[in-house]
Amino acid sequence: MIVGIIPARYGSTRFPGKPLTDIGGKPMIQRVLEQAQKAHRLDAVFVATDDERIVAAVEAAGGRAVMTRTELPSGTDRCQEAYRKLVDDGTLPDDPANYIVNVQGDEPFLNPDQIDGLAAVLDGSVELATQMAPVESAEVLLSASEVKIIMNARQEALYFSRQPIPYLRGVDPMNWHQHHTYHRHVGLYAYRADILDKITQLPISSLEQAESLEQLRWLEAGFCIKLVETAHTAQAVDEPDDVEKALRSAL
């Protein structure tokens, strides 16, 4: 079974109430929910939130929401708590081989094919999975806000970094992307249920602290992250100015 969970926290330093912001006549959380429900490989979709106003918006759109604690540190933790609640109340079967796909709650026009592309590799042996896309410009490669990935021959992550990796000796960094195939991280995650329980119990790691990337905690602990290339990327709404960008991207 593959379950989609959309973490949607009400509080945000840059954009309080972001999940309820109007995106072309609908709350953003409804837009995300509707896109996730179009994915063929998801057996069910839920919203994990900490606010009754978001619950009301989800239910008004015909969706299902789960209340979680406000103080949870990440979307991964919110997915885990919501999933456990759904298992405990009998909504979902308690099967360690279930998968949970963490659907970003701030991408109102996420392409359902992107979700299906990730879900396609969830064969029971995969512990964790996420997506990547080729880097096509020096601007993206050198940006600290774009996370770069190196991987092994089985397309399993070796490392994630805000720095461009690998370093190309003797080549101008502005031209690195023309001499090597770099990949950037696209932040859609899938977790096997038993692994999700384990990674949310791990202490913060030194590499995670250094790069401010939670997936490095999992790698340091010895878990395997499968990488799936995608041609789909969605405009995220991180602050109010991004609403118009998201609407333009959907045209």
Automatic annotation (TrEMBL):
<keyword id="KW-0548">Nucleotidyltransferase</keyword>
<dbReference type="GO" id="GO:0016020">
    <property type="term" value="C:membrane"/>
</dbReference>
<dbReference type="InterPro" id="IPR003329">
    <property type="entry name" value="Cytidylyl_trans"/>
</dbReference>
<dbReference type="GO" id="GO:0033468">
    <property type="term" value="P:CMP-keto-3-deoxy-D-manno-octulosonic acid biosynthetic process"/>
</dbReference>
<dbReference type="GO" id="GO:0005829">
    <property type="term" value="C:cytosol"/>
</dbReference>
<keyword id="KW-0963">Cytoplasm</keyword>
<protein>
    <recommendedName>
        <fullName>3-deoxy-manno-octulosonate cytidylyltransferase</fullName>
        <ecNumber>2.7.7.38</ecNumber>
    </recommendedName>
</protein>
<keyword id="KW-0448">Lipopolysaccharide biosynthesis</keyword>
<dbReference type="InterPro" id="IPR004528">
    <property type="entry name" value="KdsB"/>
</dbReference>
<dbReference type="Pfam" id="PF02348">
    <property type="entry name" value="CTP_transf_3"/>
</dbReference>
<comment type="pathway">
    <text>Nucleotide-sugar biosynthesis; CMP-3-deoxy-D-manno-octulosonate biosynthesis; CMP-3-deoxy-D-manno-octulosonate from 3-deoxy-D-manno-octulosonate and CTP: step 1/1.</text>
</comment>
<dbReference type="GO" id="GO:0008690">
    <property type="term" value="F:3-deoxy-manno-octulosonate cytidylyltransferase activity"/>
</dbReference>
<keyword id="KW-0808">Transferase</keyword>
<dbReference type="GO" id="GO:0009103">
    <property type="term" value="P:lipopolysaccharide biosynthetic process"/>
</dbReference>
<comment type="function">
    <text>Activates KDO (a required 8-carbon sugar) for incorporation into bacterial lipopolysaccharide in Gram-negative bacteria.</text>
</comment>
<comment type="similarity">
    <text>Belongs to the KdsB family.</text>
</comment>
<dbReference type="InterPro" id="IPR029044">
    <property type="entry name" value="Nucleotide-diphossugar_trans"/>
</dbReference>
